[in-house]
């Protein structure tokens, strides 16, 4: 084992290379773990900054050209513009949502107290409900008392959830301010240097140059299609339905408008899950004109998806409905609000990579 220089050679050449790779892999794993622990508090604002910077890149190029190539000035103007957007309309929407959610919780509490003090049998005066209860009692052996117990339990759980959401929002206010500040700080650099960062990062993708360009083009098309075709359409639908709720005098139009925007991605039902029960309430109250008006608004809102979305995503990638549905809901659960955008994009990119594999397999078979 002695070497010509008088030392000891404990490991042979092949073994030395093996252990060098093991140590290098261990060092990289440790480095990745430490980086994750350091960046973990900022992952959400970083994801928002990357996402917004990606969407703002076309505007950054045009604005920098107008400013004589001053990329920093263009990035600063766009960052200030995003600050104004968040501090203006979005803050007003958040305040209105919180206020109306509290009012709605109070109304539900009052309804719950009233419901405890009376029998649900008087609700059977409405023919449609009477028919439904008769069918349930005949075929499913469900009595009116059991329906009352279910409604009481459901209302109690809903109120508990609303109360817990209010407490969580209060406790997270300080952290939200910090995250927003970090997001704006990162946004400036990602907008200014995003194109260069993207070029450097794409070199790490183990694909040919042609495939890499196709993947990046697909990523850009899908992201913009999700934002314009899905999110913007959902915002339009939610806004129209919220206006409809306000016109007919229903409570919490902002809350139900936001709910309609979120549910608009559901393939079956969509915004109808919000406005159809509301029409039922108006019919029960004998508000025939208001019910007809809200029905008309609901039909218009449902048609927005068929007319506005194709116009917004014209010339861009068409994202499958199933990918959007699973991506939005799964992304919301996994990543919070940013997951509404990340989820469909991740699924669409995964489908693109599978298509690349299928094409490569078909070429080998030929």
Structure notes:
Helix content is 82%, strand content 0%. The protein is mainly α and 366 residues long. Helix 2 (43-66) crosses helix 3 (71-116) and helix 8 (253-263) packs across helix 9. The longest helix has 46 residues, at 71-116. It is globular and about 85 Å long. The two termini are 54 Å apart. Residues 162-175 have low confidence and may be disordered.
How big a fraction of the residues is strand? under 5%
> What is the overall pLDDT average?
75
Low-confidence stretches: 162-175
Secondary structure class reads mainly alpha
Report the radius of gyration as a whole number of Å.
28 Å
The helix content is over 70%
Number of helices: 12
Succession of helices and strands: HHHHHHHHHHHH
Give the overall shape: globular
Number of strands: 0
């Amino acid at each position: 084992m002695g070497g010509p220089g008088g030392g000891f050679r404990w490991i042979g050449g092949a073994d030395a290379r093996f252990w060098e790779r093991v140590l290098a892999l261990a060092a990289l794993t440790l480095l990745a773990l430490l980086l994750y622990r350091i960046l973990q508090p900022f992952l959400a604002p970083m994801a928002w900054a990357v996402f917004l910077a990606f969407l703002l890149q076309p505007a950054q190029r045009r604005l920098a050209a107008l400013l004589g190539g001053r990329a920093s000035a263009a990035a600063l103007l766009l960052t200030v513009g995003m600050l104004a957007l968040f501090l203006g309309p979005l803050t007003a929407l958040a305040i209105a949502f919180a206020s109306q959610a509290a009012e709605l919780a109070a109304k539900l509490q009052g309804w719950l107290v009233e419901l405890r003090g009376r029998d649900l049998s008087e609700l059977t005066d409405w023919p449609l409900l009477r028919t439904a209860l008769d069918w349930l009692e005949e075929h499913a052996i469900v009595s009116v008392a059991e329906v009352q117990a279910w409604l009481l339990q459901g209302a109690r759980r809903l109120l508990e959830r609303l109360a817990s959401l209010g407490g969580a929002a209060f406790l997270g206010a300080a952290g939200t301010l910090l995250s927003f500040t970090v997001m704006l700080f990162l946004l400036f650099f990602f907008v200014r240097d995003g194109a260069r960062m993207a070029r450097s990062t794409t070199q790490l993708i183990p694909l040919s140059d042609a495939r890499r360009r196709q993947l990046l083009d697909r990523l850009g098309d899908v992201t913009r299609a999700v934002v314009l075709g899905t999110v913007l359409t959902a915002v339009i639908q939610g806004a129209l339905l919220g206006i409809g709720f306000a016109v007919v005098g229903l409570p919490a139009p902002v809350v139900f408008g936001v709910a309609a925007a979120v549910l608009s991605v559901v393939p079956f039902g969509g915004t109808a899950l919000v406005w159809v029960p509301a029409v039922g309430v108006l019919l029960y109250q004998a508000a025939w004109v208001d019910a007809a008006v809200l029905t008309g608004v609901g039909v218009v809102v449902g048609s927005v998806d068929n007319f506005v979305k194709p116009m917004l995503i014209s010339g861009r990638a068409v994202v499958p409905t199933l990918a959007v549905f699973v991506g939005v809901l799964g992304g919301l659960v996994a990543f919070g609000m940013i997951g509404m955008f990340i989820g469909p994009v991740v699924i669409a990119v995964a489908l693109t990579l599978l298509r690349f594999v299928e094409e490569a397999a078909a070429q080998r078979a030929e």
